[in-house]
Every structure is written in C-alpha cells, then in structure tokens.
Amino acid sequence: MNKLEGISKGKKSSINLPDAKRIWIICVVVGALFWLIALGLWWQEGIDEAVLFYFDAPRVAYTPFIALSQWASSYGMAAITSLFVIYRLASFKLKALDAPLTIYFYTICSYGLSGILGDLLKFLFARPRPITTYGNQILVYSQSATPAIPSGHATKSVALILPFLLLVSGSKNIHKIIKIVIVVIASGVCFSRIALGAHYVSDVLAGIGMALIGLPLSMLFANMVLRKASRDQLKRLSIIWTILLVVLTAIFMAL
Prior knowledge:
Elements: H1 21-44, H2 46-54, H3 56-61, H4 64-91, H5 102-125, H6 130-134, H7 152-167, H8 173-195, H9 201-226, H10 234-254
C-alpha cells in the first residue's frame, strides 16, 4: 500500500494525507541519535580534529576530489531542486511520474523549517568554525563567519530529499533511480563540508539529525494547511509549490 494512501484520522479532508506516525517516530529517534553522536564527538574533539587535518593535504593539492566537493557544496541543493522541477514538468506527460502532488508542499516545509531551525541553533551553540580555530594551521575552503553546529548545508540538503525519499512509493524503477540520485547528491553535499574544511564531522552529523527531527514538525504544519485545501486545487497548488521551492533554494544559496 502506498504510504500516501492512508487518510489522516480525526479530520476529514478531500486531500489524501499520509499516515506517517511510524515514520515520524523513526525520524525523531534516529535524529536524536545523530545529535547524541555529534555532541559526543564535539566533546571528545580528537576525531573531529583528526578528520579535519586528514583532508588538509588534498585541499592544499587541490585534487579532483576537492574540486568535486566544491561543486557539491555550491550547487548540490540546486541540482536536487532542478531534478524535482523536471519531475513535476515531465509528470504532465508521463503517467509513471505519479508521486503525490502534496510531496512538493512537504518538501518546502521540511526544507524551510529545518533550515531555519538549524540556523537558529547555530547561534545557540555558538561553536567556532574550523577556520576560526585552526585557520593558521590548515587550508580551509570556507569564509563563512556563522557558527559551526549544525551544518546548514547538511541540514538543508537532507531536509530537501527526506519527503520524496520516505513518502514516495519505491515500487517503480523511476522512483528508485531518483531516490538513489538525490541520496548520492545530498551525501555529496554533506561530505563536501568536511572535505573543504568548512565543518567538523560532528557539525554534519548534527545537521542530518536536525533534518530528521524537523520532518515530523514540518509535516504537522503542512497537514494543517492541506486540510483546508481541496483535491481540485492540487494541480494549481503544486505548480506554486514548485516555484516556491526554486525561490527557497535561491535564497538559501545566496545566504
């Protein structure tokens, strides 16, 4: 049964909403584990520092791996967003591209809410970036002055793919392929922040945890909005949501 075929209990709606309580619980538990590991690494310091210095030689030599990491860091989220836009446009003609249109709204809410909450937590924890602590010892491809934990790139890239990854049926090969592609790109974005010296391993793990914990909150908000919409409005709304997704990505890339 498609995860999005279940109707939310308690309130009637002309739009099918996912019965995703099990997914929410898993996301919160796994997200909390990521945060616990991240905070443990931050407290321990040694592993974070060792990984940071391990990638210093490739950064100095500017290997193809570092060049690819720069691309992933700069354009990874835009690539994922572009793929979602292409999917929506192609779905007008191809019946196989039948992911629920509500996915676009869940994606916006996950992307936006987790991204904003993660950025706020940065200032709460106020952890200095590697360039601040080790700037005279290593080469770092990052000039950001914001605090380090959680990694904004990791938070946003994972939050961007979670709705499609967890809520779209994987029974069709095209969806399996898309899921593999977006996971590879998002993983590349996360790893690039470590390779470029922009973040510690713990920052990235915390960012992934932030995205996971943010998904249930995002979906709760999204469902409140969707219950007020009708099925007949979905096609028009999905176009608006797709445009907003592009705008949100442009904003995040500019920050």
